[in-house]
Amino acid sequence: MTMDDTIPLSRGFIGDMANLDSSTVLARHPTFTAQVLQIKELSSAQAGGPRRFRFVLSDGDHFVQCMLATQLNDIVLNNRVERGHTIKVRQYTPSEMKEKLVVILLDFEVLTQYGVRDKIGSPTSIDPKVNRQGPQPAQATYSNGSTGSTTFYGEQKPQVAPKVESTYSAAPSYGSAAPRPHNYYTIEGLSPYQNKWTIKARVTFKSEIKHWHNQRGEGKLFAVNLLDETGEIKATAFNDQVDQYYDLLQEGEVYYISKCRVNTAKKQFSNLQHDYELTFERDTEIEKCLDAGATEVPQLRFNFVENLGKLTDVQKDTIVDVMGVIKTVGDCAQITSKSSGRPYDKRDIVLVDSSGVSVQLTVWGTQAVQFSANQDDIVAVKGAKVSEFNGRSLSLLQSSTLTVNPDISEAHSLKGWFDTNGRNTTFSSLQSVGSSSMSGRPENVKTIKQIRDEQLGMQEQPDYFTVKGTVLFIRNETIAYAACPTEGCNKKLTDDGDGWRCEKCNKSFPEPVYRYILMFAIYDHSGQMWVSSFDDVGRVILGKPAGEYMRMRDEDNSAYLDEILKSTGKTYLFRVRAKAETYQNTTRPRYSAMSATPLNYAQESANLVKLIQSFDLA
Fold first, then answer.
1. Among the four residues 26, 80, 101, 463, which has the most C-beta atoms within 10 Å?
2. In this protein, which residues make up the domain named OB (predicted)?
């Protein structure tokens, strides 16, 4: 017995895959053990998409090409698997790509006890059509790191016959619980080179029906995102298929889908990474999955940025997944597009996380009107667009999804941090630092004298600028107002004797929620100016929720005044909106602080060094 004989390779597995249908292979080999002969990164991976890796696995008798599911990329990138390792594959999907046998690897473990070995046996390529006449010899050797010279399986290109597959051929029927085949194709493995396939996927997003009119006619469409354990793909229905499938497909439900056209993905209309997308056709078959197998399909898949603070390192217009705690929910407002004149509903939400920064997320359309998440909820956003409007911010697209309090480990961790420390944290807004961080140059900060000399805020449209100022004085007579506790309302309450009443909500409450409405003076070396602000900036400057100050004022007014005084003398970068207002026939600019960011003294020092170096001292 040789040392290699002690390694339990699943001999015969690849031969079975070549000659048996997928359901029989999976039943006979729920797992298999193989040796890694090759690991190679595919050069055809689409720019901006996930990296893709090809494996060549051997069962000792034959070798086969494999594609690694992208969620396993870290195993390769961290060098936890190498050529010569033995692996136990715990989950996989047999498939065909471009008339070649392919295994999609979904989960495996490296059997490190066997170490890295030379090639075991003399594995050969296999052709399902001619295998009975004997396997074809491989043309490559293990030592040079290749299993083929002209083609993957060797010099002779195999003539692969189609495999026998169990496909569902009955007419699509909503609510049917008929048994289904188990040899589903993976979404990651879909391409135009397969004709017979069935996927089992969850609808993670469904768009509204869109209508178009142009020179070629008119029509309608809607799109869905489909997810399984290997990836996510977009599918679109046009015209008659809209009527056929729109009510059938519902977000969150799992379906068996087959007989769609597979096209190259139009990346400008999708936020998914798949190289292809699906189009529903007249013969497309869709059936809702009502059996227990529906729970095996993941609910959502995210690729979160590390934290909100890292958004300053992300290029403008990049599509990202983010997660944060809702700090504030703005009112739903309506704006009119300058180009089309059409009205749009929007709602601004402020998200925070453990990075200590806050970022504004704008929700549009129906999502803005129907938005029902509450302050302190966790939201996971898939497919938000990074914007530099008024600093760094996020915007939801029509294809974006927003999930409230998702049942995932990242959300539980963030919730634990917020409940323990986050509620009392002072956050810096990315709206004031986004653009400067992206460019690598210090932002063009205005002095107070420049603001007045340039008459910022005196034009028809408001002006936005950043000013570095020190808080000189805070008016302490009125620093907050009694606000409606209904999430997203924030309207001022009136004390009717029996409670606090909100006219907008038509409700009464035993206690209000106090929100800041500050008026304070700031100064720099060139002058002084008065600035107003609301709750977000008030929390930064005064360091506590407004309710704490109101209770302090009622209990000990001297302590209240002393505490406010402690907040003066501190310097911030203020993002300011200047807008002309007329009072008693006098027009003057009103300055409103949209954000306040404590100074980063290391960055300020670097900026001063650059400023000094820019002077000609010769």
1. 101
2. 197-278
The residue type at 405: N
Q: Which amino acid is located at 229 in the chain? A: E
* Nearby residues of 581 by Cβ (< 8 Å), 6 or more positions away: 587, 588, 589, 590
Q: Dig out the tokens for 527 from the structure.
A: 């002058």
Dihedral sign for Cα atoms in the order 582, 584, 590, 592: negative
Residues forming a β-bridge with 492:
483
Distances (CA, A) of 83 to 35, 147, 570: 8, 12, 59
Convert the pLDDT of each residue in 489-547 to its tens digit: 888 999 888 889 998 888 889 999 999 999 999 999 999 999 999 998 999 999 999 99
Mean pLDDT to the nearest integer, 340-355: 85
Average pLDDT over residues 425-454: 66
CA distance linking residue 170 with residue 172, whole number of Å: 6
* Residues 6+ away with beta carbon under 8 Å from 468: 445, 524, 571, 572, 573, 574, 599
Instruction: Report the C-alpha gap between 532 and 591 in whole angstroms.
Output: 6
The model's pTM is: 0.46
Tell me the β-bridge partners of 377: none
Collect all residues with Cβ–Cβ distance below 8 Å to 259 and sequence separation of at least 6. Answer: 281, 283, 284, 285
- Taking only the tens place, the pLDDT of each residue in 124-166 is 887 654 443 333 333 333 333 334 333 333 333 333 333 333 3
Q: Which of 554, 558, 550, 566 is nearest to 481 (CA)?
A: 550
* 285-288 and 319-336 beta bridge pairing: unpaired
